[in-house]
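Worked example 4.2. Below are the chains of a multi-component assembly; read each line carefully before continuing.
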Amino acid sequence: MAKYRAPIQSKASQIFDVIFLVILTLGALFVPLKMGLSGAAKTVAEPMEGATWEALGQTPAQAAQYEALGYTPESAHDLILARFDYSFTAGALIAMIVIIVAYYVLMLKFSESEYREVIAEKFDGK
Amino acid sequence: MANTDITSKEMDGMGPHGTVVGLLRVLGPAHVWALGVGIVLVGEYMGWNFAVGKGGAYAALIACWFAGILYTCVAMIDSEVTSTVAAAGGQYTQAKHIVGPLMAFNVGLYLTFAYTMLEAANAITAGYLISVVASMTGYAGELDQRPFIIMVIMFLAWLNYRGVLATLTFNLVITAIAFVAIIVLFLSTSGILGGGIMQHAALMEGHELPYGWIGVLAAMHFGLWYYLGIEGTTQAAEEVRSPARALPFGTLAGIMTLLIAATLTWYVCSGILPWEYLGDGVDGAVAPLFSAAQLSGSNALVWLLGIGTLFATLASANGCINDASRAWFAMGRDKYLPGWFGAVHPKYRTPYRSIIFLVPIALIFALGAPLDQVITFSILSGLLEYTFMPLNVILFRKKWPLNSIKRGYEHPFHPLPAIVLLCLCGITFFAVFLGYGTQLIAMIGFYIVVSLWFHFWRYRFVNRGTQFTMPWPKPQGY
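Applying the procedure described above to all two chains together yields the following structure tokens:
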């Protein structure tokens, strides 16, 4: 079996490859962001009218630090009350596990077949 | 037994690949330490505090220590493999020799994106800091941070373009100053020098675990930020004078430094700042150590921590450009990416095309995405890389047992660190899923698509046997 000789890639094809990778990279971050699916949005479940430090659940020591940072109960309202929502469905969790495991299985399987070619050519001269 | 001399002059730089000009071997252990700690120390100055937002202050401390265990495993594993696979590209080159080309391609992308996103996050923080300094010095109105973000990235890219020794010597100095600033803040505010202003009990009263124990799990997501990037020491493998000694020493000294810095940082910030403010790194404490200094009542501390924050962001961005460009360069050299990227500058001996190419990518992210999203993108790439490491070291020991090739360092208790690392990575995936599940799926989707693209298209341009450049015997089982 002859050694594998990689074809020469044209300049246009090289540029296309780079553009393809860049578009995918930007898409992975910006598509969820632009579609409002980026998660991590903390929300205030029950907004409070006429908030005070006590009503916001702050002790005098905590309130004093907020005031030192330049906050009032009104301006600190969202900062203090906003919370993540950690509720999730079993289906979503299972889907995530399946996707991650499938990714690694796919990668290890393809890598192994490529690796065997590399080792065969390097050490066995095939 | 094959005696693999990784300090051999024949293996220098591009040598094994048949080109004349290689990367310069000019770095020592201190530079390796500066590269690792320099990239990561900014994690104490910004970003880690999102862990407080996800679970509360105590959750962030637990995450800090568990993430510390995770990174200790990373450093141990990395030190063994890298002290043997001493070539630019770090974990990318390890994966190429140990697991296979597709894994290597993915690892190369993890490295590039983890570091480029971290660089973008640093530039955002530097821009924020300059706007705060402007308002402190009397500037009225909202300062446009964008020119400063652009300047930071462009300046550091230029520094990297000009040469690695100057770049990492610069890092060594500013990293040391940033580390000393944390120590001084701790000594000044904890009561060791003068009056203490810590009030942990009072500030956490009623808010010990605001999300319960699930918040502790969730906090692991940003707990990684305390240390993310320490594994970047391996990128300098082709440029250190003595890889077998300098890489393990620099990496392990680095993780010890960071464990101390991370714990001190948590102690100072959670004892001075209310947790809701501390935990919001976008609308609250963008730079928490700096915010803590502002509440200390000492102008000297405010300036010291302001300078420390700026230096930490510059050191980190500087190291990130260094590491991301090496990974991109190594992939170009192997034709995993267009070979044009695999060029070394004829005068400065740096991977200049890769450095230049990654500048606009960093700028797009720094100017177009919020800080927590950029950090999450970086953390996810890092997490995928850490999940690869236990697989890598298990295969490494299986294919080349201890007596088959000479290692610069052998990590103890194998395979315990690999198993612990794999378990902690699983927990961190779940932590990211809590609140940032869409990004996680988008990111994995991205890597699946590029993997298929690589396997079915790009790999045809890669020669097979020549990828294997280490003078090792044939792996067992093949």
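Take a moment to check your reading of the output against the notes. Residues 31-467 of chain B form a domain with the Amino acid/polyamine transporter I fold (CATH 1.20.1740.10). The CA atoms of residues 40 and 229 of chain B lie 6 Å apart.
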